[in-house]
Write a structure and sequence with these properties.
This protein has 377 residues and is an alpha+beta fold. It is built from eight helices and 21 strands. A seven-stranded mixed β-sheet has the order 1-11-10-4-9-8-7, with helices on both faces. A five-stranded antiparallel β-sheet has the order 14-13-12-15-21. A five-stranded antiparallel β-sheet has the order 16-20-17-18-19, with no helix packed on it. The longest helix is centred in the middle third of the chain and has 18 residues.
Length: 377
């Protein structure tokens, strides 16, 4: 695992060589990580990567097969979920339909020791509703609320007990895109206001990048890289991360030689590319398999007639195979003889030649060596 996040601050969550098996199947394989106190951390990955199992072991719904799970420095092996200082918000909000909003929020307070009296429970429920900007909604039933409002009630119910850690199991998946964006802002605001550790599980990279202080990318039960959103996007540790986070043009091949911190790669097409080695990945050496990744927004596109004017170190000729209008940018997929399809993304304010680059247009694309990153497969 590559870990580029500073974990010198106290941690609310630590995994030490944690393995979880179901029979002969390993759901997570030797996880080691720490989540900084008061931060917003995300586990990001595709289905079956182990992220939900990891969350459930923090919550106490699952116990590790081996290794230690620590909360605030204490090993919680065998400690049941209801005795842990954590609460969880699920993808399906699991609100009781026959109870009012206030009663839903106060439900967990009945099991606190010592248990607050009924008046105190309702006061705490009202405070939690105010926190999620639903003051005055306490007497409504869940069926009388929108999806976004139900999600806020689920958040209020989880926060009313003032947990050390709040776990979020894809809580925005059921919302439409516009409402999801609004709730992302709400979650960020809440996390800053209450100051507790939030841990999110999601398969949505945009969601993780926009909200997190740190992200662990998971694959096949292991953490591939833990870093800030900026580090994951700008300095992926491996081909998998470069491909999973955002979009990249990926050129596989064999390392021909090392030139200081740069890698000369002979591609599968027999051509050579040069790029700096990613600062977060493992070292490369001659004759090993590698990859050079170039983000679409770092590639220029021009009319084929303007090729002589393009001052890029790598220049390719091709034809526009697809043109996709994305609002704030235009994406071109250019079929080149040298490397197959190359994806180029042009900001709207720079896309002056859009009419010239329709389907089939002859174009030149290019980038500088420094715009790529070489990394292990």
């Amino acid at each position: 695992m590559n870990n580029s996040v500073n974990n010198t601050s106290p941690s609310d969550i630590e995994f030490c060589n944690v393995v979880k098996r179901y029979g002969e199947v390993s759901a997570v394989n030797g996880l080691n990580f720490a989540v900084r106190r008061g931060s917003f951390h995300s586990f990001l990955g595709g289905s079956g990567c182990g992220k939900t199992t990891t969350l459930r072991m923090i919550a106490g719904f699952e116990q590790p097969s081996s290794g230690e799970v620590r909360l605030s420095g204490k090993n919680v092996a065998g400690v049941p979920a209801f005795e842990r200082p954590v609460n969880m918000v699920f993808q399906h909000y699991a609100l009781f339909p026959h109870l009012t909003v206030a009663q839903n929020i106060a439900y967990g307070l009945r099991y606190r020791t010592p248990r607050p009296d009924k008046k105190t429970q309702l006061r705490m429920a009202d405070e939690a509703l105010e926190m999620v900007r639903l003051s005055g909604f306490g007497q409504r039933k869940p069926s009388e609320l929108s999806g976004g409002q139900q999600q806020r009630v689920a958040l209020a119910r989880a926060l009313v007990n003032k947990p050390t850690v709040l776990l979020l199991d894809e809580p925005l998946a059921a919302l439409d895109r516009k409402l999801r964006k609004e709730m992302q802002s709400e979650l960020l605001r809440l996390q800053r206001e209450v100051g507790i550790t939030f841990v999110l599980v999601t398969h949505d990279q945009e969601e993780a990048l926009s909200m997190s202080d740190s992200i662990s990318v998971m694959h096949n039960g292991s953490i591939i890289q833990t870093a800030t959103p900026e580090q994951l996007y700008e300095a992926p540790a491996s081909r998998y991360v470069a491909d999973f986070i955002g979009e990249s043009n990926l050129f596989n091949g064999t390392v021909r030689q090392m030139q200081g911190d740069s890698v000369v790669l002979r591609t599968e097409q027999g051509l050579e590319l040069t790029s700096p080695l990613t600062p977060t990945g493992k070292a490369l050496s001659a004759d090993v398999a590698g990859c050079i990744a170039v983000r679409p927004e770092l590639i220029s596109i021009a009319s084929a007639n303007a090729n002589a004017d393009m001052t890029r170190e790598v220049k390719l000729q091709g034809h526009v195979e697809d043109r996709i209008y994305l609002g704030n940018s235009t994406e071109y997929r250019v079929r080149t003889q040298a490397f197959g399809v190359v994806c180029v993304r042009v900001p709207r304010q720079q896309d002056h030649g859009a009419n010239a680059f329709e389907h089939g247009a002859a174009v030149s694309v290019g980038w500088d060596h420094a715009n790529g990153l070489a990394m292990a497969l």
